[in-house]
Write a structure and sequence with these properties.
about 625 residues, alpha+beta, Uridine Diphospho-n-acetylenolpyruvylglucosamine Reductase, domain 3, Vanillyl-alcohol Oxidase, Chain A, domain 3, 7-stranded antiparallel β-sheet, 5-stranded antiparallel β-sheet, 22 helices, 20 strands, about 20% strand, binds flavin-adenine dinucleotide, binds 2-acetamido-2-deoxy-beta-D-glucopyranose
Length: about 625
């Protein structure tokens, strides 16, 4: 967006001449407001990243209040007080929306931008060059956006955005909850509007900017959202009329050789908020260790993934990814930078590990324990009903499900899909992931299943390969950008199924029937066998249903690409109904639940489904740490 971007910079430059803000040094004209604080973070057992040392202090806020040119804006940047929130907000009043009488005027946004050092970006939807009404129509750029739309890198990470040639501040991977108001299209008659995109994003490069944004949003009564990569299926990394804190650029990674906190003594990785799963895996590999992560390499690590708990390819041996987090640095709703660990704010440390993204604080970095390298055996294959018929197909699937107990006892994990294409069924195992297994021990383990498939006459050809360690196995199974995103015609929901349903033969039959019926009804099923027990014996807010689960299953329904609000409502109702048999056989409170990071937004009784036994305490902590509802 060369024209509008350079205009923007010019504008800033012009303002800086009009409104110099000599807050730190006398010599510069645009000066980001930040103090360089000492590096120590004793309660985290580590040192701060450079970008975390740049903080907003009471003294700086005071200077903003005192400077003649900024005095009238000063109150917008003041720190809050968690114990005495503003009564009007406590009373449930709404946040301001662009166009409202009290919505900040341009001069206030300019002052904010100046304090940020020019990091404020008014939102331009990523597909704007496809629309004449937006004023930036460009057929070539539009074609590139269309061509790259399902590539996660377009929305998230790397400098391939063909529009700005930079990572995009506000694009999200799934547009349904954005409102589909600016989809990529070659129809020139369309209109592009902001819809659920935020009004502005702050391109964060230091903690002071996060503090300024939190204080500004809170004092101006504006909705605040956080975007890391924008992978959230539920649209939580966007928000209409919001100010977005965009953490993508916080890429620092550091190995701590001898990390000692509590009972842990060993290697650890300190990770910036913008680091992705792939970057964590690669860093761990280079440092001779293994880190826990999920299957999508473009997901952000220290943001929504850890906040949601983070299920992982290594869960059979080490548990959830959030279980590995030892300490976090974060900015809380009052704008203060705190350390959350066993030694300081242990309640917040508990909540930030599993209690859900964008709820308690903005995490700026985390420290995770890491593990030795282990060998892995992978096996990928698929089979279908074309030659053998539906009955044999389902007996073959059933033979797999029947073995979830021995498979998970052996520490393995799987990722599979079951499709119903006009009554023809197929199952893709991609892959069966056997950590710390050789090909021989893998073959022994799966022999009862494979034998059954052969007896049923089901043709299948497992491609089984072993690797000396995690990284090359992952890299081959999921090469860069392998997970397609960008769709607006599906809606996911999910359920965590407890091992108890597998231990009782009657329940197992009912469970398997419910799952089979969903596929027969035409729904797409995806899933995993895995057991992320609390293997590290930590206390955190991970949904207690994960601890007893043996399987995590996703159900996807289709929605028309141009669904009307009424049709969208009907789809929500359909999704809720489709999941009902799963809820009935794996109820909340009896080991069942739903993973909040990949959930149906309409999940009934969500308190118990998403948080299990942890909900009451999380509710209390939300009131303690964010009574005003900043997040
Ligand atoms: C293709 C795909 C595969 C996936 N595979 C897995 C998997 O294997 N295992 C698994 O557990 N999950 C998986 N997920 C789900 C994933 O963990 C969630 O979508 C997660 O929320 C993404 O986090 P993010 O920070 O990258 O995304 P974002 O959409 O940017 O953020 C997600 C949420 O976290 C909040 N947030 C982001 N950064 C911060 C921060 N610094 N502080 C506080 N809040 C923050 C956001 O506001 C938002 O609410 C997958 C998702 C996709 C799309
Ligand atoms: C809260 O809202 C109610 C109803 O709108 C109003 O009567 C009351 O005065 C408000 N209280 C405060 C403290 O603002
Ligand atoms: C993006 O689209 C352009 C063509 O429009 C193509 O040349 C380029 O390879 C695409 N990039 C990616 C990463 O898909
Ligand atoms: C765009 O609008 C024109 C004039 O109303 C109409 O003739 C044309 O068919 C429309 N094109 C598309 C792709 O909808
Ligand atoms: C965001 O800031 C980083 C520096 O931290 C810079 O490299 C990048 O170009 C900026 N991105 C945008 C879209 O302004
Ligand atoms: C079904 O399986 C057979 C045998 O493996 C294979 O040849 C065929 O391509 C598969 N069909 C589909 C639609 O996957
Ligand atoms: C499935 O059936 C529908 C309607 O009969 C048809 O349009 C579609 O092409 C079929 N799909 C496949 C993959 O056979
Ligand atoms: C991996 O397997 C070996 C051999 O079976 C076993 O000794 C070791 O304890 C296992 N490692 C872990 C971390 O489970
Ligand atoms: C479970 O279902 C299988 C297959 O339909 C059947 O053979 C078995 O008897 C059932 N078990 C119980 C306990 O109902």
């Amino acid at each position: 967006m060369a024209p509008s971007k350079s205009l923007f910079i010019l504008f800033l430059w012009a303002r800086s001449l009009l409104l110099p803000l000599p807050l730190l040094a006398q010599s510069q004209s645009i000066i980001p407001v930040a103090s360089l604080l000492p590096p120590d973070s004793p309660n985290a057992g580590a040192t701060l990243f450079e970008y975390e040392r740049l903080q907003l202090t009471e003294e700086l806020v005071q200077r903003v209040r005192e400077q003649e040119k900024t005095a009238k804006y000063g109150s917008f940047f003041a720190f809050g007080d968690l114990d005495s929130p503003k009564a009007m907000l406590k009373n449930g009043s709404c946040k301001l929306f662009p166009g409202d009488k009290s919505w900040p005027k341009e001069d206030l946004w300019d002052a904010f931008d100046n304090l940020l050092g020019g990091a404020l970006i008014p939102t331009t939807p990523i597909a704007a060059p496809c629309y004449k009404n937006w004023g930036l129509y460009d057929s070539e750029k539009c074609a590139a956006v269309i061509a790259n739309w399902t590539n996660p890198y377009l929305h998230t990470l790397i400098l391939v955005n063909p529009y700005t040639n930079e990572a995009d501040p506000t694009s999200v991977a799934f547009q349904i909850f954005q409102g589909r108001t600016c989809l990529p299209t070659s129809n020139l008659n369309g209109t592009c509007t902001l819809g659920g995109y935020p009004a502005y994003a702050v391109n964060i490069s230091n903690v002071a900017q996060i503090q300024l944004a939190v204080n500004f949003a809170r004092n101006a009564n504006i909705r605040l959202v956080i975007k890391n990569t924008g992978h959230c299926y539920l649209g939580k990394s966007g928000g209409a009329g919001a100010l977005s804190v965009w953490t993508h650029s916080l890429k620092d990674i550091e190995l701590i050789d001898d990390y000692k906190v509590g009972e842990y003594e060993g290697k650890a990785l300190k990770l910036g908020a913008g680091v992705t799963v792939r970057e964590v895996y690669l860093a761990a590999h280079r440092h001779g260790v293994t880190a826990l992560g999920g299957i999508c390499d473009t997901v952000g690590y220290a943001g929504g993934y850890i906040a949601g708990g983070g299920h992982t390819l290594l869960s059979g041996i080490y548990g959830m990814a959030a279980d590995q987090v030892m300490a976090l640095e974060a900015v809380t709703a009052d704008g203060k930078k705190i350390t959350a660990s066993q030694m300081s704010h242990p309640d917040l440390c508990w909540a930030l590990r599993g209690g859900g993204g964008s709820t308690f604080a903005i995490v700026t970095s985390i420290i995770i324990r890491v593990h030795p390298k282990l060998p892995v055996t992978l096996s990928s294959f698929s089979f279908n009903s074309t030659l053998v018929g539906k009955e044999a197909f389902w007996l073959g699937v059933r033979a797999y499900f029947e073995l979830f107990i021995p498979f998970t006892d052996a520490g393995t994990y799987s990722y599979f899909w079951i499709y119903n294409t006009n009554g023809t069924y197929s199952m893709d195992m991609k892959p069966f992931w056997a950590l710390n297994h050789t090909i021989a021990s893998f073959n022994d383990l799966v022999q009862p299943w494979f034998q059954k498939l052969s007896h049923l006459g089901i043709p299948f050809t497992p491609a089984t390969k072993s690797y000396p360690e995690f990284w090359p196995a992952f890299d081959e199974a999921w090469p860069p950008g392998s997970g397609a995103v960008g769709g607006w015609t599906t809606r996911p929901g999910n359920r965590l199924f407890p091992r108890a349903n597998w231990e009782d033969p009657v329940k197992f039959n009912q469970t398997f029937s419910a799952i089979q019926e969903s596929s027969k009804s035409g729904y797409r099923l995806g899933g995993y066998h895995q057991t992320p027990r609390n293997r590290a014996h930590v206390s955190n807010a991970v949904n207690t249903a994960w601890r007893t689960a043996i399987s995590f299953l996703i159900l996807g329904i289709n929605v028309a690409g141009d669904a009307t609000p009424a049709e969208m409502g009907a789809a929500s109702a359909e999704l809720e109904d489709a999941l009902e048999p799963w809820r009935r056989i794996a109820p909340n409170g009896e080991g069942g639940g739903s993973y909040l990071n990949e959930a149906d937004i309409g999940e009934p009784d969500w308190q118990s489904a998403f948080y299990g036994e942890n909900y009451p305490r999380l509710r209390e902590l939300k009131d303690k740490w964010d009574l005003e509802g900043v997040f």
